[in-house]
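**Backbone shape codes:**
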Amino acid sequence: MSQNLKNKIEATDISISSLLKDQKFYIDYFQREYRWQEKHIKLLIEDLTTTFLKSYKPTDKRAAVANYQSYYLGPVVFSANTDNGKNSIIDGQQRITSITLFLIYLNNLQKEHFEKVGISDLIFSESYGEKSFNMTDEVREPCLKSLFEDGAYKIQENDDETVKNMVERYEDISESFPEELSTEALPYFLDWFVRNVVIVKITAYSDENAYTIFETMNDRGLNLSPTEMLKGYVLSRVSDTKQRTELNDLWKEQIIILHKYGETADLGFFQSWFRGKYAESIRPGKAGSEDKDFELIGSRFHNWFKDNHKKLFNLKTSDDFYSFFKNEFPFYVKWYTKCWDSQAEFNKDLPHLHYINSWGIADSLQNPLLLSSIKIEDDEDLIKRKLDFTARFIETFTVRRSVNYKKFGQTSIKYTMFNLIKLIRNNDLDKLGQNLLKETSEIEQTWSAMHDFGLHGQNRKFVKHLLSRISSHLDIIIGKDNNYVSYHNPNGRQFEIEHLWGNKFYEHKDEFEQELDFQNWRNSIGGLVLLPNGTNQSFSSDKYEDKIKHYQKENTYVQTLTNIYYEKNPNFLKSELISKLDFKSHPELKKQDIKERKELVMRICKQIWSTEYYKTE
């Protein structure tokens, strides 16, 4: 390679189609792990779908998509080293992996559509007679192949962090992608995604230059963040020097606290605080509509505050600004971070905050909703009850939608949740309970869907959440020292979903003519329990009649299958809550038994998520 070419650096803005079509990218050894978390992929899907829906009109012809608003995804850096003929990804691997997973999901989604968009060559292609994925890493190949062909991949014991994260993020995409884009709008969205989403591709022709670019792009830089610009504006409105110094010191202290939760936690805090307590409007769903409070806070909250502090905050004088930020700012930081802590680690005073960490809604809606009802005048116990009430509604909403196979991505529910934010804002506890009870009664999705609910390729995460809630609920009733964490994410031995029937169709031909029918019943919620993974692996393929003797030593929900459990368990037998559930043993397991267990699950769910919880007297 000539020295001139080695020194060359190129940068160009291109579409996803141009970046990926018939290309082969190698992932450099130092950044092989794919580490995106749920919040990253869900925020990407939220941003992409929201931007598309700003322009989309059902009456448009597909050619109109060319003029839709574009979306900038950021830069990626490649080393096109002609010495070894490889095009290596130096920076942007996380995004390209996420884009590939999203393309695989969209390609699977459009399989049943008459009108298809050709995107498979953005995922894998043929070179010299060999087909391979465009993003090349032998560790990922089996997972990518299974996701591409079947829409699911069963994690193996020796799979690394990258593969596990890829499977989980694929499931997150499935949960987050809006239902309204899954039918007639899907070809439009696909056209837009591969042609209107812009990436800046930076190509260096030597590894040395590529790594220099990588280091430069990942330096922190000196640009002021929205938080810093907000701080500058607030301090400029405080005329008293002593008060300004005091406020500046307080601001620094609070930002240090927030940054313990992540480099951008301060941005999330201000967005949640302002949306939860002050936003009055949200952009209508019609194409071409202007952004309103909700969107403006999300993009440039410092500018929104400057435009609205007189009208919405009633801040006019220097003393107003000083008093407001001295008192309100640390109060909401305290409870914002308390919510984070209680989501991460189970807190018996705030149990539902931990539940919604596993099965909640988008942070952009969830965090404002949690902050909306609490007030600086509330005492600590009252605040905890308000937060737990609100989190309970969120979990009830997500669980009921999930058992009805309904999604709850941000774009699907943001109007519902924004109206709820305004409804419960500054409520006292009684009013909050009344409002949440009423809102719960108006959730369209009912528990009757449990008759048709079961495990499938993309809902394993939810099924484990549901079974963890059921198992811990029964244990708690009879006085066992277990809680949700004991099943969902224990420190020691892990629990896995166990099929009560082994995967042996031929053993059930007395009740099933078609294997598909057998599989549907086998995967139904009535045929599933949680077992420690060693037990699960040891007996999973055995006949039910052989396995049931081992179930006598497991958790309460599993033990109720056995006859012997109903003989000497006074806490179980004398409990009023248990008696309302109408348990019975199942020494053998036929279709009728699984049907009865489905109905039992429905009764348990009604008890767990009863609206009686909201009554304050």
